[in-house]
Design goal:
Blueprint lengths: L28 H4 L2 E2 L2 E2 L1 H12 L5 E4 L10 E6 L5 E7 L2 E6 L17 H8 L1 H20 L3
Antiparallel strand pairs: 1-2, 3-4, 4-5, 5-6
Length: 147
């Protein structure tokens, strides 16, 4: 089971590690999250999510039209295959809430994903390929630097 957007400790057995190739040797995503008391500011988390995976999608940005706040943020993403989605980010995770930028379809009952990596992996073969290529490039650089 992968780690959720919460403060619960990861489970040791079968734990999935989520990181971008550029972040392999840096702090984890959750260490970069800004917390306000016990509540994470979803607007700031959304910006971090975008920065983590922008290299592997065609376009991704926090929605300026939909109201984001401490408990929810909206992210627009266009995957490499050309399909656009509006994503909702909450403490429960990320899910697709619309198939057009800046539009929430209240009738959609889509699955929550614990990480942006899991969500994009389920939507986009192009994301998987870009992520894998970036990982290989990062490993090659480490090898060339003798690390």
């Amino acid at each position: 089971m992968s780690r959720k957007y919460s403060d619960e400790p990861p489970q040791e057995e079968g734990m999935e590690v989520d990181c971008t190739p550029e972040e392999l040797c840096k702090c984890s995503y959750e260490e970069r999250c800004v917390e306000l008391g016990d509540v994470k500011d979803m607007r700031l988390e959304a910006e971090a999510v975008v920065n983590d995976v922008l290299f592997a999608v065609t376009d991704m940005h926090v929605s300026h039209r939909l109201t984001s706040g401490i408990d929810v943020a909206y992210i627009n993403v266009e995957i490499r295959e050309g399909t656009r989605y509006c994503l909702e980010l909450t403490e429960a995770g990320l899910r697709v809430v619309g198939y057009i930028f800046d539009q929430v379809d209240e009738g959609l009952n889509t699955q929550y994903h614990e990480t942006v990596y899991s969500l994009l992996d389920s939507l986009s073969p192009g994301y998987r390929e870009a992520f894998g290529n970036a990982l290989l490039q990062r490993l090659e650089r480490l090898k060339q630097n003798g690390q």
